Amino acid sequence: MNRRQYLAAVGALATVGCLNADEPEPDTPDSNGATPPRVSTDASTEQPARSSTCTVENGTDRVAAKPITFRDFAPDDAGVVLEATVNGRVQATVDEDPDDASVAVPNESDQVFMVFRIRLHNPADHPVPLNRFWLMKSHETAGSTGNWYAPTSHDLPEAGRIEGGDTVGYWEERLIPESATRGLVTVNSAAYDDTLVGATFTCDESLDIGVVESSD
Predict the structure, then answer these.
(1) Residue 83 domain-assigned (yes or no)
(2) Where are the strands (E) in the chain, listed by range?
(3) Which pTM value belongs to this model?
(4) How far apart are CA 157 and CA 169, in angstroms?
(5) Which residue windows does the record flag with biased composition (Polar residues) (predicted)?
(6) By CB neighbour count within 10 A (0-12 exposed, 13-18 middle, 19+ buried), where does 131 fall?
(7) Does residue 209 lie within any of the structural domains?
């Protein structure tokens, strides 16, 4: 089977660096020469109104399960709060179409894919922009959090928005270290300049993710 080397958007292994104006400065050693752990700076930690989480924990025969936590971001001043039903798992490869020869494989031997499916409903009576940076994906390893902004999204609406009252479905993949203890997903509010968009998450492990591992 022919393989294509998985290529996330520029710098899939880079932690927060060039895609978000609110990102932290690069880590610098402290007075003892130690580099402090990177921590998340997403806005959901600053405005936790109506905050809750749901967690799914799925793996495959080739990759042990890791918990993936989806964290609400629904501040009182949000212009609209989307309603997301989600499922996710970790897997060794991504085979979007078993009848096709193309298979996504990690860049490094110590990486796995965090894959999740979203069914997204817009309860408002007006369209809401849905750009590919609207969710923030990260991973937690040994108490520190690495944020990866450049997403690989599939089946997003071609119009770049979700109409009022509509429900859309799409999926995303993200490379994380195999040593990561869990994945984290929340709203990246900095993706919107005008209207603050939030989301609440409901986990549903019966939701079909729609991608499999390659058998090779």
Answers:
(1) yes
(2) 4-5, 53-58, 66-71, 80-91, 104-105, 111-121, 128-129, 135-141, 144-148, 152-154, 161-162, 167-177, 182-187, 197-203
(3) 0.73
(4) 9
(5) 41-56
(6) middle
(7) no
Q: Which residue has the tokens 């429900």?
A: 167
**Count of residues for the chain?**
216
**CB–CB of 101/108 below 8 Å?**
no
* Total tally of structural domains belonging to the chain: 1
**Domain of residue 141, residue span:** 53-203
For residue 162, being part of any structural domain is answered with yes
Residue 176 is part of a domain; what is its CATH number?
2.60.40
Strand partners, 118: 86, 170
Asked whether residue 26 is assigned to any structural domain, the reply reads no
Q: Tens of pLDDT along 197-216?
A: 999 999 999 999 988 888 76
- Rounded CA gap, 194 and 151, in Å? 22
d(CA 210, CA 160): 22
